[in-house]
UniProtKB/TrEMBL annotation:
Provenance organism: Microtus ochrogaster
Domain C2H2-type: 39-61
Lineage: Eukaryota, Metazoa, Chordata, Craniata, Vertebrata
Protein name: Zinc finger protein 706
Keywords associated with the record: Cytoplasm, Nucleus
Domain Small EDRK-rich factor-like N-terminal: 1-37
Length: 76
């Protein structure tokens, strides 16, 4: 009977370990970071997370190119 109890205990321990590994594996930082980059520069295809950063990038990297219409009213 001791072996039966040991087996049950071992199965519970393994199930808990597997659940912990799934939980740890569930969050992918690369995918989350990529999803946050929603603005893409039309000139160099660089991706940025918000319009303020996008406007600063555009003004510093592409000063001779006219500003895109979506950045006209953004405060930098």
């Amino acid at each position: 009977m001791a072996r039966g109890q040991q087996k049950i205990h071992s199965q519970q321990k393994n199930a808990k370990k597997q659940a912990g590994q799934k939980k740890k594996q569930g969050h992918d930082q690369k995918a989350a970071a990529k999803a946050a980059l929603i603005y893409t520069c039309t000139v160099c295809r660089t991706q940025m997370p918000d319009p303020k950063t996008f406007k600063q990038h555009f003004e510093s990297k592409h000063p001779k190119t006219p500003l895109p219409p979506e950045l006209a009213d953004v405060q930098a």
